[in-house]
Automatic annotation (TrEMBL):
Keyword Cell division in annotation: yes
Reaction it catalyzes: UDP-N-acetyl-alpha-D-muramoyl-L-alanine + D-glutamate + ATP = UDP-N-acetyl-alpha-D-muramoyl-L-alanyl-D-glutamate + ADP + phosphate + H(+)
Family per record: Belongs to the MurCDEF family.
Organism of provenance: Flavobacterium alvei
Single GO MF descriptor: UDP-N-acetylmuramoylalanine-D-glutamate ligase activity
EC class: ligase
Main function: Cell wall formation. Catalyzes the addition of glutamate to the nucleotide precursor UDP-N-acetylmuramoyl-L-alanine (UMA).
Protein name per the record: UDP-N-acetylmuramoylalanine--D-glutamate ligase
InterPro entries: Mur-like_cat_sf (IPR036565), Mur_ligase_C (IPR004101), Mur_ligase_C_dom_sf (IPR036615), Mur_ligase_cen (IPR013221), MurD (IPR005762)
Length: 445
């Protein structure tokens, strides 16, 4: 059996390692450059590879192809040819899942999935479970399956990864929320993106669980019109349930069938903000399903450190708080960030627009934002929408200037918030690079 891996990054190399171990004839092809650390792994494991090209005769003879989630099907010539030939194209998750007996917990959503994934992992790890972290975060799932050391996996799953599944099913699935994102990959049709997220539950049975945000319109609408066989566990900030999780008078309650009720005062939790209460309810629901003691859950919720680049407090300089929310790559994520601001805010925004509707932020911008710094190659849309709403709007094309300008525009008691609502690829390698440059620039003030 010939396995061709398109993309020589973390998931690609991990899949290659697993494929080799399971007896496949493996070939890795990357249209860009493969990082030196991954080249070394491929060479050490005697796996054939190429970079900066896709050689058709070495690819179109595959029995199965694992495609990196970053490669868009509609724009890649080699992917189109593979589809024409009817060669199965899988995601890393689909390829690796049959090779492990471990329980998987799959977490998706437009926002909050990284925090929820990290928090869920923290709860299970703190309870002494033999658990690993993978998917869209940390070490490749396939690579870890090849090493076969874990009883359960907490996996962050993007819509692109879910598009490449056929039979995979998580024992526990979470959909944190759904809002328009990556629509450029879904023909600008929101319903296609929603359907993509719900692929997480398509193979689940009556023995599996789907934990979901009952306040989310898109999720509620899908569940009204479609069926899943999984047992449903909702969470909400406004509703209460016999089975599910909710907030009642500043107390989080989680009720799971045949499990002792869990309660905790929200102010004793490490995470702050309404959106983080939802993340905590989702993660706690998993912990209860995995039969973790209430005392252990409480302790873990009170000492969780949070996620880098997500509402990360960097420094306070001259009584101005600088916050790195570079991971906010869509409007909905920035909505949560602005909603949690309690002081006048200088907002750094911009990047690669993914079909954003900034009007959703209008009421928050009017209420909370005193100045906007546009950090992107093309800021026209942001300027058109907010130009008459704030007193000061400035364009810059690098992070150092953005931070220096923010310092000039801010006064004691203000907040400087980097929450771009956009992808980063116009000026930065990725959102981590953007966030790290922001932190460096702040430290140099």
């Amino acid at each position: 059996m010939r396995l061709v891996v398109l993309g020589g990054g973390e998931s690609g190399v991990g899949t290659a390692i697993l494929g080799k171990k399971k007896g496949y004839d493996v070939f890795v092809s990357d249209f860009g450059k493969i990082k030196d650390k991954y080249k070394k792994v491929l060479i050490d494991n005697d796996i054939a590879w190429e970079q900066e090209k896709h050689t058709e005769e070495l690819i179109l003879n595959a029995n199965v192809v694992m495609k990196s989630p970053g490669i868009p099907e509609k724009k890649s010539a080699i992917v189109k040819k593979l589809i024409e030939k009817g060669i199965p194209i899988l995601s890393e998750i689909e390829f690796a899942a049959p090779f492990t007996k471990a329980i998987t917990i799959g977490i998706t959503g437009s926002n909050g999935k990284t925090t929820t994934t990290m928090l869920t992992y923290h709860l299970l790890k703190s309870a002494g479970l033999n658990v690993a972290l993978g998917g869209n975060i940390g070490k490749s799932f396939a690579w870890q399956v090849a090493e076969d050391k874990f009883d359960s996996y907490v996996l962050e799953l993007s819509s692109f990864q879910l598009d490449g599944i056929i039979n995979y099913k998580p024992h526990i699935a979470i959909i944190t929320n759904i809002s328009p994102d990556h629509l450029d990959r879904y023909d600008y049709k929101y319903e296609k993106y929603i359907d993509s997220k719900f692929r997480i539950t398509m193979n689940q049975t009556e023995e599996d669980y789907l934990i979901y945000d009952a306040d989310d319109e898109a999720i509620a609408e899908w569940l009204k019109n479609n069926k899943t066989r999984a047992q449903l566990i909702p969470f909400s900030l406004t509703k209460t349930f016999e089975i599910g999780a909710f907030i009642k008078e500043k107390t989080m309650e989680v009720n799971i069938i045949n499990e002792e009720e869990f309660t905790m005062e929200t102010e004793t939790m490490a995470l702050e903000g309404k959106h983080n209460m939802k993340n905590a309810m989702a993660a706690t629901s998993v912990a209860k399903l995995m039969k973790i003691r209430n005392a252990t859950i409480r302790e873990s919720l009170s000492n969780f450190q949070g996620v880098e680049h997500r509402l990360e407090k960097v420094l306070k300089i001259q009584n101005v708080q600088y916050i790195n929310d570079s991971k906010a790559t869509n409007v909905n994520a920035t909505f949560f960030a602005l909603d949690s601001m309690n002081t006048p805010t200088v907002w750094i925004v911009g990047g690669v627009d993914k079909g954003n509707d900034y009007n959703e932020l209008m009421s928050l911008v009017r209420e909370k934002v005193k100045a906007i710094i546009c950090l992107g190659v093309d800021n026209r849309k942001i300027i058109d929408i907010f130009g008459n709403v704030v007193d000061m709007m400035i364009e810059v094309n690098n992070m150092e200037d953005a931070v220096k300008m923010a310092q000039r525009l801010s006064e004691k008691g203000d907040t400087v918030l980097l929450s771009p609502a956009c992808a980063s690829f116009d000026l930065f390698e990725n959102y981590e690079d953007r966030g790290n440059q922001f932190k460096q620039a702040v430290k140099h003030l």
